[in-house]
Each structure stands twice: as C-alpha cells, then as structure tokens.
Automatic annotation (TrEMBL):
PROSITE patterns: SUBTILASE. One of its GO terms (molecular function) is serine-type endopeptidase activity. Belongs to the peptidase S8 family. It comes from the Bacteria. GO terms for biological process: proteolysis. It holds the Pfam family Peptidase_S8. Gene3D superfamilies: 2.60.120.380, Peptidase S8/S53 domain (3.40.50.200). InterPro entries: Galactose-bd-like_sf, Peptidase_S8/S53_dom, Peptidase_S8/S53_dom_sf, Peptidase_S8/S53_subtilisin, Secre_tail, TagA/B/C/D_pept_dom. PANTHER family: CELL WALL-ASSOCIATED PROTEASE, SUBTILISIN-RELATED. Residues 857-929 form the Secretion system C-terminal sorting domain. This is Peptidase S8 and S53 subtilisin kexin sedolisin. Residues 162-447 form the Peptidase S8/S53 domain.
Length: 934
C-alpha cells in the first residue's frame, strides 16, 4: 500500500469542501477515445476502423445493459446534485456494480504565462486560437450542456450531440478555454477558438468518430470512487452526507481503482497510439478534498441507505488518482494554488484538493499542473453570468486552452501540427518546479504549465533550444553531440506515445499491483569524453515522498536529464536507445534540448575544394568541410547517400557528383555539388609477379605506352638513372616498378620481382678429402625440381656423372654445374687426394707389426701427419678418434679398407705439443694407444 498521510479532522475537510463546491468537486476524467492519426496509412486506417467497431460494440452494449439494469434495480440514470454536481450512469463493471461519472471542478492566464502568447504579451506573437486550420480541433466532453448563447461565446461554441441539460460546470470550463473576454476578467485561454462540445455519455464512441480532426480535448470528469460527499442527502448534519463507493468485495480498506490501469486506460492508450496527433487532457480529480467522516461516524455505502462505520483509507495522501486518468499517453492535470504579486506569479503550491500519484506501477501522475483555484468564468444561469470556481476541472481547462495556442504557434512557423507526444513533451520540458525542486514528483508531476517557456522553445530566437521528432528502429542507437552554452542548465527531455499496456487483473490479490505497463522502454543519456554519464530522473513508488534522483527510468514514457551547471563550450553526447524488443519494430519519439550553443549549418557545408576538379586514377581526393564538432555529415554521390560521418572529411577515389549535408542538433544544410572527374592513368608492367633471373642474363620488362607518357624505373625503391623508356632490360635480381606521368597525374605499377634462379651449388663429402687406397669418396650436391647435373674433374666433364651424387676414386679438383629453368651455376672446387705412398720397408715392418699388434701409429712422435693402421677380419665401419689425456674427443675419421688392414691419416699439425691417444672401435672392442705430438 502507498504511504498514507495522517487523517484530517472532519471540520478541516468539510470547510475545504464548502470552499470548493461553488462548482462540481470531483472524481476523474472520463475514459476517452481520441483521434485517428492526421496522417495514417491505409492499413493502419483499416485496423483503426476494426478497433473502433469493437470499441463501439463493447461500450454501447455495456451502456444499454446498465440502463436496463438500472430500471430493474431502480438505480438513477442521471441526477443533478447540489452545487451543480451532475452524476450520470455510464455502465456496469465486471462485478455488476454501476459506474457513475461526475465532474471534477483571470488569474489562470497569469499563472501559466498564457497571456504572453497574446498581442503585446512580450513574445512578439498574437495567438487567439482562431487559425482556420484549428477549426474543430479543440473539443470538450463534459456533463451537461454549456450555455451556447452566453455573451462570451459569440457562436464559437457548438454543441455536437443532443444533450439539453444546462450545466454551470460545462459552461465554466468552456469559458476558461475559449471565452472572448467581453468581461476582461474571464478571457479564455484561446479566446478566439472554435470549441466543439459533447456530453460525456457514450464519449468513447463519439471521440473515436471525431478523432481524425481533434488535436486537444478536455475531460474533467470520471468515475465516482472512494469517498464521495453527497450534499444532496437530506438533513443538516454534514457527517450524514458521506458515501463510500469502493468495491468491498475487492478491498474493505481502499478503492482498488486508485492508481489502477483498467480496460479504459488501455483503450485510451490505444486510441492515442493510433492517433499520434491527438492529445487527451484529463483532470487528476480532487480526491484529497474528500476524505470521509470522522472515524466511527456512520456513512453510506454508495448511493444506498446501507451504512457502515468501518475505517477506510482517507484519500488524503498518495495514490488517489482513479482509473483511466492513469493512462500513459494522456496528459493528466492537477491543480495549482498560485501566489501572485503585482500581476506576476511569485510562487505556487499543489492545491490541497488535487490528486496525487503514483500509479500502481509507479509512473509519474499527475503529469502537469494548471491553475486550479479561484478561477472566474462564465456559468449557465444567464447569458452574462459569471462565477469563481476551483478544482482540477478548471486546471484541466486552463491547460487545454493553452495547448491549442501552442499548436497554433507551431503551425504558423512550420505549416503542420505537432504530434501529441511533442506537445506533451514540450510542456513537461518547460514546466515550472516549486521552489527548491528540480525534478518531478508524485504531487506536482513535472511542474506547473509555463506557456511562455514552451513558446520560447518553439520560437527559439536565440537558437539555444532543440525540438526534434524522430523514430528509433529495433536495435538502433541514436547519438548526437551537443555543445552547452554553460549560461543555463542543460536540459534534455524524451517523450513518446507508448503502445497500450495490459489491463491489471481485478482481485483482492492485485490491489496496488506493481506490474509495469510501459511497453517500449526508451532510454536517454548524456555523457562526456571523460566517461561521466548523466541519467534521467526516477521516483521511488515505495517511498513516494522522496525527491527524484537520477537513475534508469523503467516506468515512464517521459524521461528528462538536467545538468545544472554544464561547462561552457563543452561537448556532450546525447544517446537514445531502447531495451528489449520494440513492438512493431519502430518507436516514434520527440526530443527536446535546452541550453545548447547555436549552430549555423549553412557555413558548415562549404566544401574546401570549392569547385569541380579532376582526380588522377588510383589516387584519392580528400573532400573537407568547415565542420562543427557537433555536426554529422551525410555524403552523397550522384544523388545517393554514400556514407555518414562525424568528421568533416571524406576520401574519395571515384568520379561522380558529390555533395554533403551537414546535420546538427539545430539545423541541416546541403552543400553545392562538386563534379569530380577521373583521369584513368594506369601503370602496368609485363611480365608481372615473381620471375627467376639467370646471372648475367637480362629479363625484358615492358610498361604500357601512351601519348605523352614519361617513365621512371626503380629497383628496390631507388630510381634507375637514364631508365626513361617503356622497356627495361635488368640483369640483376630485385623489385622493379615503373611510374608513368601524363596530364599532371602519375601512376605507379605493381612491383615485379626478379629472383635469382639458383644459389651456387656446394659439394659435400661423407669422409673428408683423402681417397683411401683402392677406395672412393662419395660426393653429393644440392637437389631440387628440374635440376640437371654435370660433374667435372680438373675442368673436364665426366660424361657418366649426371646425378646429384658421385663416387670419386681419383684425386683432383672436382666441380659440379647445376642447370635449372634455363639457368646454370658452377660450384666452388673440391680437391681430393690419395693416401700417401708407404715405403717397402714400412710395408714389411707393417706386415710384422700387423702380426703382432692390431693397432699401429706412425710416425710416433708425429709433427704434421699421423697414420693409423688397424687389422681386423671384420667389415664393420671402423672409426678412429684423437682423445686427450682427460678423455676429450678432438677429431674422428673412418678407416678405409685396404685389403688386409684399415687405415687413414690425421693432420696433427695444429695440435699443441703433448701426449694424446688414438682410440679405435670395431664393434666388438675398443683399443687405445698413445702418441706424442712434437
């Protein structure tokens, strides 16, 4: 349950009621149906027609059932109570309980600054509401008939249905909206406007039928809910005139319809969504003035004679706006009590009768305040009768009449009308807050209507305001850079007409149910380059008296951000995005920004290049404008959008007719087109790619030819002197390009790479360069695809040696020539030698030694060469190694089979003098023997 204020005493409540009741007191604005769109597609028109047929059937049948049931149950159908308070049967609810409507009842033009819109009002405009295009667009539905012959109406007020019951309430509100000012004290807000009037019975059907024409309609009535003071009950005891109209089957403590989103609220939202130019203005009711009798005093249940003394909630705190006045897309108006000094507003407060929000789902209601106390206007008793009345009804009429003037001003400037979300957002954006308040509240909504501020946004003479009607697509994010003046707060307001929500279920368990009714949740943010982010206002329905704080608003279809002290000249980024899935995939919205630096888009679209130009082929041209940091640029080529940028620069490479449109938060301007021609100069080399080049051989490179062409060749990025023809015959590997110049353009070819076909071959051996006795050494060289070989010994070709391997058994100088892809390269020479000659004495001694020992070393000591001889009957690969005294291996060689022994030689000339070992392994054993190096 919402917080409840302390109960008032009966005397204070009763005295307030007597003050208010020169006119009707209270209940709520009716369930209204408004206009189909002024601009509507064929498909949406068909849908609207079908919905209207369903609505007409539902409400007409319900009203007929109520009339029949009234005759059976002896309910009254319409009754005029004391003080012109009319109560009329409208239908029956789902519980079979009758639904009754009742009305809610020039200082007003001062309080809302409407007088500034008149001739001599200080804004330089002369608005009366008499624009021909406004005829039939300002309407009122109310209980009873206004006195059409009143001198203040002059034939401009027309009754559109057959009601004949004159009503002070209807006459008073009509005068507040449109009185001519014959009596200067009762000059209506739109004193030259034509006003169409209907009785509120069957209002939904009538309003839907008229929807295509209406811009603003006034509705200061609604269901009888909660406590109801029936002054017509017999007797003089004021305590015996209270009635409780709540459904005790749902709640014995409160009327569930307060803050409740019912079917009628849903229908209102659907109507507004289908008709985006139609704004329905409804009063917030005066329920805080009807708080019931003292505790323990008997009161009546509804309009019966049944009584009760059960304590009920007193309607004197939050959550006292009933039923369809809680719709999202309407403008719900509360009443303000003004403090006026010397004809100027010096302050205001919420009138003590005006209904407070929030809705059950926590939305901000009321939306706005109008002047609701001590309003003098016409009444129905005679053609020149007047009375002073108070109530949210008068506040509602004060606002409605002013809104049509704002539409008139907008039309005179733009030649079309604002969307309802724009009109609503405009007055919420510019509303006055109470002293020391900067955000909205559940008491005064967004503040008191200030028509002067709203008109200044539309006039925008200093170019410090932004008003934009846009649409947000699914998954789209809109961003706009803005620059703050720093002289005033930076204020950004977002407003949209939301799809209808789902009505709340009616049960004891769902009283004050918090289920959110917002369908398309848009979000507005402001940020700066330092990473700071500013959020919109939010209120806490669990703590309704708490001041608004910045946060993520998940409930309202109006969001507002205020930066109280922005940095002068600072750039802020405004961002609009959405949560979840947008119903229908697109959501129109209205955006308002105040406190921005003026922009001049016309000076921002002067292309620096200025005139037609020629572009060289394969080069680029930078198109630059003298841009503002808060502009975006739409670049077009040949009349079609090419790209959108935030930088005032575009690089192009193609011919065409180019232009740019600069778009800011205040303006948009189109540049003059520039014709960019392209000279198709190209440079091409043949052959292309990577090509093998043989050493010393030329590869012809050819460039394309043309009249007046000049050539410059480069190798590895360095110009080749005197290479100025179309053909180049390079003989060296490298990366080659050619640049061609003609007609002040230069084109450079793609590179052609000349690669060495071969690297110089290398000959490798498997066992050194000494050919063993009666043996050979295996020579190998490089291998690769498509290689051919030619081996040479002492520069003479070995005819049979045509592979990558050769068994060399003869000493001498070996070379190999490899040919691949037409290129040939010769290796460096490799010299092979034989085992040195051994004298016969050594041979005989060797024979003796071999008999006695397997391993022989000579000479020992050795100076230059050491010969190793080893006897073995096996054919293992034998390896001899030179080992130091510490076991370190210095060198190893294979021993060659010489028939009866294995042998080889070591070059020991570079060994330091000392003792070493020769170690031989034959697979079965290892034998070591020392030798001395001298």
């Amino acid at each position: 349950m919402p917080d409840i204020l302390p109960r008032n005493s009966f005397l204070s409540t009763h005295s307030l009621i007597r003050r208010l009741l020169p006119v009707c007191l209270s209940a709520v604005c009716a369930v209204v149906y408004g206009q189909t769109s002024l601009h509507q597609s064929d498909s949406s028109s068909v849908i609207a027609h079908l919905r209207f047929a369903d609505l007409q059937k539902r409400y007409t049948l319900n009203h007929k059932r109520a009339i029949l049931q009234a005759k059976k149950e002896k309910w009254f159908i319409s009754k005029k109570y004391a003080k012109d308070r009319i109560v009329t049967l409208q239908g029956i609810d789902s519980f079979g309980i009758p639904i009754y409507y009742t009305s809610h009842n020039v200082v007003a033009s001062v309080g809302t600054h409407t007088a500034t819109l008149y001739s001599g009002g200080g804004l330089g405009v002369d608005l009366k509401g008499d624009l021909p295009q406004l005829s039939g667009r300002l309407c009122i539905w109310d209980g009873g008939l206004p006195r059409l012959s009143h001198v203040e109406f002059g034939g401009r007020v027309r009754q559109k249905d057959g009601n004949t019951l004159l009503s002070d309430h209807s006459t008073h509100l009509s005068g507040t909206m449109a009185a001519a000012g014959i009596n200067p004290q009762v000059k209506g807000m739109a004193f030259g406007a034509r006003l169409d009037v209907w009785d509120y019975t069957n209002d939904l059907v009538e309003m839907t039928q008229e929807a295509s024409k209406i811009l603003v309609s006034n509705h200061a009535y609604g269901p009888v809910v909660g406590w109801f003071y029936n002054e017509s009950r017999p007797g003089n005891d004021p305590n015996r005139k209270w009635e409780w109209w709540g459904n005790t089957g749902i709640s014995t403590k409160e009327d569930y319809r307060f803050g409740f989103y019912d079917e009628k609220a849903r229908d209102l939202d659907q109507l507004a969504y289908n008709n985006p130019f139609y704004l329905i203005v409804k009063s917030a009711d005066n329920k805080r003035a009807e708080t019931g009798p003292p505790i323990g005093t008997p009161y009546f249940l509804r309009n019966t004679n049944q009584t009760s003394i059960l304590d009920r909630y007193r309607n004197n705190a939050y959550d006292v706006i009933p039923a369809d006045a809680n719709a999202k897309n309407i403008l719900t108006v509360g009443g303000a009590d003004l403090t006026v000094k010397n004809g100027r507003l010096s302050g205001f407060s919420v009138a003590d009768f005006s209904g407070w929000g929030p809705t059950d789902d926590g939305r901000i209601k009321p939306d706005l305040l109008g002047v609701g106390t001590n309003i003098i206007s016409s009444i129905s008793s005679t053609d020149n009768a007047y009375a002073t009345l108070s109530g949210t009804s008068t506040a509602c009429a004060n606002v409605s009449g002013t809104l049509i003037l704002l539409q008139e001003l907008f039309y005179r400037k733009q030649n079309y009308f604002m969307r309802s979300a724009t009109l609503k957002g405009l007055v919420l954006h510019t509303a006055d807050k109470p002293l020391n308040k900067s955000g909205p509240s559940y008491e005064y909504g967004w503040g008191l209507l200030n028509a002067e501020k709203a008109a200044k946004v539309l006039i925008n003479s200093e170019k410090t305001h932004v008003l934009a009607e846009r649409s947000l697509r699914q998954n789209e994010t809109y961003r706009q850079k803005i620059i703050a003046t720093g002289n005033t707060p930076l204020v950004a307001t977002l407003s949209w007409t939301d799809p209808a929500g789902t009505p709340s279920a009616v049960s004891a368990q769902t009283v004050d149910a918090p289920a959110i009714k917002l369908i398309n949740d848009l979000d507005i943010r402001l940020s700066d380059d330092a990473g700071a982010t500013w959020f919109p206002w939010v209120l806490d329905p669990a703590n309704p008296a708490k001041d608004a704080t910045p946060g993520d608003n998940i409930r309202d279809n109006t969001e507002q951000i205020i930066i109280a002290s922005p940095t002068p000249g600072k750039v802020y980024t405004l961002t609009i995005r959405h949560k979840r899935t947008l119903q229908t995939g697109t959501q129109p919205y209205s955006l308002f920004i105040s406190g921005v630096r003026p922009q001049d888009c016309n000076t921002a679209v002067q292309l620096v290049s200025g005139s037609d130009t020629t572009l060289c082929g394969n080069t680029s041209l930078k198109m630059e404008v003298k841009g503002d940091i808060a502009l975006t640029y739409e670049w077009s080529k040949d009349g079609k959008l090419l790209t959108t940028t935030t930088a005032p620069l575009l690089t192009i490479m193609q011919k065409g007719i180019y232009s740019v449109k600069a778009i800011g938060y205040q303006c948009a301007a189109q540049s003059k087109p520039i014709n960019v021609r392209v000279t198709d100069l190209t440079a091409q080399l043949s052959p292309t790619g990577s090509i093998a080049i043989c050493s010393g051989r030329a590869i012809p490179l050819k460039a394309n030819e043309g009249l007046g062409y000049r050539y410059q060749w480069k190798r590895n990025g360095v110009s080749i002197s005197e290479a100025t023809g179309s053909v180049l015959n390079p003989t060296e590997p490298g990366t080659y390009t050619v640049s061609i110049s003609a007609n002040n353009c230069t084109a450079t070819s793609k590179p052609t790479q000349l690669l060495s076909a071969l690297r110089q071959p290398v000959i490798s051996t498997n066992s050194g360069t000494v050919i063993p006795p009666n043996g050979s050494i295996r020579l190998t060289t490089d291998t690769g695809e498509k290689m051919t070989y030619r081996w040479l010994l002492n520069d003479k070709v070995l005819p049979t040696a045509t592979g990558a391997r050769l068994a060399a058994s003869l000493p001498g100088k070996y070379t190999v020539e490899i040919t691949q892809n037409g290129c040939s390269l010769l290796s460096k020479p490799l010299v092979l030698t034989n085992v040195p000659y051994l004298p016969n004495t050594f041979t005989r001694a060797l024979d003796i030694l071999i008999v006695k020992e397997n391993l022989k070393l000579f000479p020992n000591p050795a100076v230059h060469t050491l010969t190793v001889v080893y006897e073995s009957a096996d054919t293992y690969d034998l390896e001899a190694r030179i080992i130091t005294l510490t076991g370190v291996k210095l060198e190893s060689k294979l021993l060659y089979d010489n028939g009866s022994v294995f042998l080889n030689q070591f070059d020991v000339s570079q060994l330091p003098p000392g003792t070493y070992f020769i170690q031989v392994s034959d697979g079965n054993r290892t034998i070591s023997k020392p030798f001395v190096k001298q």
